Amino acid sequence: MSRNAESTAFRSALEVIRAVEPRVADAIGAELTDQRESLKLIASENYASPATLLAMGNWFSDKYAEGTVGRRFYAGCQNVDTVEALAAEHARELFGAAHAYVQPHSGIDANLVAFWAILADRVESPALRKAQVRQVNDLTEADWFALRRELGNQRMLGMSLDAGGHLTHGFRPNISGKMFDQRSYGTDPETGLIDYDRVAEAAREFKPLILVGGYSAYPRKVNFRILREIADSVGATFMVDMAHFAGLVAGKVFTGDFDPVPHAHIVTTTTHKSLRGPRGGMVLCQPELADQVDRGCPMVLGGPLPHVMAAKAVALAEARRPEFADYAQRIVDNSQALAEGLLRRGAKLVTGGTDNHLVLIDVSGYGLTGRQAEQALLDSGIVTNRNSVPQDPNGAWYTSGIRIGTPALTTRGLGTAEMDQTAELIHTVLTQTTAGANADGTPSKAKYTLDADLADKISRQAADLLAPHPLYPAVDLT
Ligand code: PLP
Fold first, then answer.
1. CATH number of 323-466
2. Mean pLDDT by 10 residues, the chain (478 residues)
3. Which H/E stretch holds residue 260?
4. Active-site residue, 252 included
5. Is 279 a catalytic residue?
């Protein structure tokens, strides 16, 4: 394929859009410019391939396709069947999974599908059996009452938010925290690592229906074999949310005990983080849960997005290529180089380093809150996000941490030498930023001072780092 094809495709698309609403075409173009110019260290973001992006912009978007391959509630789904079956096949092959459901619109949706499937599989309830889609009209008032009572108060044990767990693992701002009686396992206060004995103890005491593994901000590998043993010892279903590190599983950086797929009953993921696909979610599961998982739409989800499933098929096909394994290894090499560069300069890192795609800096070592550090870095052209650290004294809004990740910069082709330079830029900004005060003289958790000339200088240095690694080099919109 000629490099020109990508330019032509995107330029033509913008021309067509511009004819209807030029401001949208301008915003799309501006987004490319912004993404090209920023040193993106957001651990959950990436850059999907042109093929993946283009697979989403077409007439598949017009099609309703509730149901599953070959069993739709709408006619005329033969082409949707093709792409959904392809995406599922690539997912099964890539991850060695017995079953793949590729309809979830996002990671949160994938988790909801999994929760429903586990409840439906595990909770013994004649009312629930009747409530399955096809019999829902047969339910009496008494059945509904029994259903609510029987499904209610089920227990979930997941990683605590400040140790790096995700909102959907049973926390109040998410429906999972309202559906389930939740308890958390944290990390060892000294090492910052998961203490599996403590998880086992919590499981023995709490006896959860679901044990959840997986995280958004834990910079280490997780031993899923041990977690499965813990789940088995208390009769829990073991679910892993690999949204963040799916790319490392796909690229065989995480294997054996650290690959969740052979150990978990059910695995959920996003497709847009380290996996580098379109925005979306996916569920992989053991055969006994497949039937319930496939009821995701319409039980939990709105109609499938066939254009996104087409893009998932493309991205998963890319992830099956040998070069994706190389990419996944480089993500971790870069993350470790970044961590080492920061440590060498005196930064305090949660767990003292990383063995995945992310690094969590405890910015209290610089006398800052996460909010102040995030803004000061942004002023300097470095895009990160603030994040709680274990036992964070500043709570989930201001926080004491900055989470940085390497999947996006690795896609651009930056390597370990540039990660060391990135560490220098981050460390310089954080050492030169001072916490501000409120009008009454009390310390502010949001205000800060950073010399504007220094911020400009760092922004230019960040741009210099990116210059040899243009984003979407074949796409020229001029
Ligand atoms: N699960 C984990 C572990 C996540 O980190 C995230 C997002 O950050 C999600 C689920 C939710 O994904 P989405 O934003 O696609 O709903």
1. 3.90.1150.10
2. 83 97 98 95 97 97 96 95 98 98 98 94 78 65 76 89 93 87 94 97 97 98 98 98 98 98 98 98 98 93 97 98 98 98 98 98 97 98 96 94 98 98 98 96 96 98 97 92
3. none
4. no
5. yes
